[in-house]
Amino acid sequence: MTNWLSNNHSLKFVCCFIISMLSTHYMFGFEQHTDDVATIDLQETSITNSTEIALDADWLFYWNELIEPSNFKPNKPFTKISLTNWTAFTHSNNENLPSFGYATYRLLISIPKERPHVSLYIPAAYAASKTWINGELISEIGRVGTSKDETLHRRFSQIIPLNTNETDFEIVIQVANFYHKKGGIDKPLILGASKLLLNKRSKQIMADMIFIGCLGFIGSFFLLFFLFYWNKDKAILYFAILCMSLSYMALSDRYAPFAEIFQSFSWIILTKFEYIILFLAGAAASLFFYSIFSNFVHKLYSKIIVYSFCLLALLAIFLPPPHFTKLLLPFLILMIIDLIYVYFVIMKTIIIGKRHESILLLVSMSLASIIFSVHIFFFLGKNGNAMIYVNFGYILVFLLLSMLLMTRFSNSFKELERAKEFALEQKKEISIQSNELSNVNLELKENLKNLKISNAELDGFNHIVSHDLKAPLIAMHTLVSFIEEDLDTTINTDVKNNFKLLKDRVSKMFALINGLLEYSKVTKGKKSKELFSLNNLLSEIRAVVDTQNEHIIHLPDEDLEIYTNKIELEHVFQNLLSNSIKHNDKNSALINISFSKLPNEYVFAVSDNGPGIDAKYHTKIFEMFSQLNVNDEVESTGIGLSIVKKIVYENHGIISVESEKGIGTTLKFSWRI
């Protein structure tokens, strides 16, 4: 009996042990296969309202398998892992896992019964996900599938409250990624007091709203300011684009409003758009800096910036996933190089001491660098209040930059006001000068009227000279000839010489009157142009000035088709050739005619072998009535070269002489085409 009781006690113990094992085995209310799972025991851990526990290690990872909680028994885990990008995991063939794929994560934890209400924080992953806790489907972010077509990618963080009556929890998460270079869950899950996690979430939302709202407002304000009020400063536009881009990125990264509104829209397109906005923000920041320091940066800086960010944007558009998500690294490298160059230019301008904006921009950038360092290395995820302070710091930086822009606007506005005042003064001066000009115009009209009267009087004078002066001279010459004939047999030699001298003086007076008439008529009337051969014209002139062929006149070797006033050019050449023959001291004159063509004019030259002209008379020969008396036998009025000079000047040309006494003379003149 004692043995039986003893055996009965043993049997009871065995039964109790089996019942306790069964009760533990079925504690979750579903078939749970614990023989392959090591539970993380936190029973001895004190959980308070300030506790946060990172669930980072001992996760079972099942690659290319989507397993629900009730189906784990036949499946062996791929490996035990710490949560990180699954591309860091090594496959059985010693190769890293690809970015694209799907997997299941599994973890069992045990926490004490005596605890405040706790929740599980699941960070946003670059993937669609599906979460079970103790066999119950808690949430599905996007749609998890085994292919790109079956998967709808979404990215959100979430806080999941845990049952206060349970101490043991099985966490199963299915993940599918077909768009990003990072695959799977890359941040640890956080177990903490619900009040703490919700408080941190609230403060994160508050910090985000401060950042998003203020930047959105600043960007919208400056964009409207540029579009409707002051579009002369491109820095305002670039700053507006920068603020609005950063505001959109923060909003899209945290809350993805477009994904919520358009629930079936492709997440890949939304992500590509985020990358383009990121590159746009980088370009706007660089061009904002360039607009302020355009006089101090290299001339290729703006082109390099525009082309670089345009290239990144085009690659983001056309590269397929996951390659376009790898563009973040070259973007960061470009921005670091750009930032170093910006600091260099700012310090350069401060040393030069020419820009007030340099100090303000340096203060803004230094403050931003300090805040960013504090954000990353001290407060990131540690303190909710600190995130609010950090975002306030960022807003302060943008307010300082806004102050910089408004200072530029104020200076530009003052310059504009000064310009307006100067314009008013100029307007007054113009008004005064306009009145003076009106008076001058009246005087000019009066002078034109007087000029017309003078021209009419000159025409009358010409008529008088032509008829009233020339006629008596002709009569005088004829009368002297008659007297000479009547006295031919009775007068002596002296009287004959006197009669001859008298007739010569009358002839010279007649030639002088003709020269004056010709000078007064030159360049008057219409200037008609025609196309003709220069050598044909010169041949005709040669026949006129050298009727007996006593002289040698060489025409240009190359003929020229010239379009100009033929009569005026003929008059010039005829005068020059006549002078070369008339004043030549040789029995036979040797004359060379040449020309050269310049872009807007011709240059003609007439050279002879005459006695030459002393340098001191080079300008005097073009004066009216000027005579050098080189050849005493030749009578000259001294008007011919004056007429030539007047015609040449009327055709926008210049005439000059090259000669030395006893060597010959070359007369050059230009003729506008």
Question: How many strand segments?
Answer: 18
Identify the quaternary structure here: single chain
Coarse structural class: alpha+beta
Distance between the termini: 147 Å
How many domain modules? 5
| Uncertain parts | 1-35, 630-635
- Helix count equals 13
Largest sheet: 7 strands, mixed
Strand content: 15-25%
Measured on Cα atoms, how large is the radius of gyration?
54 Å
Overall mean pLDDT stands at 80
Helicity level, as a percent range? 40-55%
Protein name: histidine kinase
Enzyme class: transferase
Catalytic activity: ATP + protein L-histidine = ADP + protein N-phospho-L-histidine
InterPro entries: 7TMR_DISM_rcpt_extracell_dom1, Galactose-bd-like_sf, HATPase_C_sf, HATPase_dom, His_kinase_dom, HisK_dim/P_dom, HisK_dim/P_sf, Sensor_kinase/Photoreceptor
Report on this model:
The chain is α+β, with helices and mostly antiparallel strands and 673 residues long. It has helices at residues 2-25, 194-228, 234-255, 257-261, 267-292, 301-318, 328-352, 356-379, 384-486, 493-521, 534-545, 566-582, 640-650; strands at 40-41, 52-55, 59-63, 79-81, 101-110, 118-122, 128-133, 136-141, 158-161, 168-177, 189-193, 530-533, 552-554, 561-564, 590-597, 601-608, 655-660, 664-672. The protein folds into 5 domains: 1-29; 31-200, Sandwich (Jelly Rolls), CATH 2.60.120; 207-419; 430-519; 523-672, 2-Layer Sandwich (Heat Shock Protein 90), CATH 3.30.565. The protein contains 13 helices and 18 strands. The strands form 4 sheets. Strands 1, 3, 4, 5, 7, 8 and 10 form a 7-stranded mixed β-sheet that branches. A 5-stranded mixed β-sheet has the order 13-15-16-18-17. The longest helix is centred in the middle third of the chain and has 103 residues, at 384-486. The chain starts with a helix and ends with a strand. This is histidine kinase. The chain crosses the membrane at residues 209-229, 236-255, 275-297, 304-321, 327-346, 358-380, 386-406. It catalyses: ATP + protein L-histidine = ADP + protein N-phospho-L-histidine.
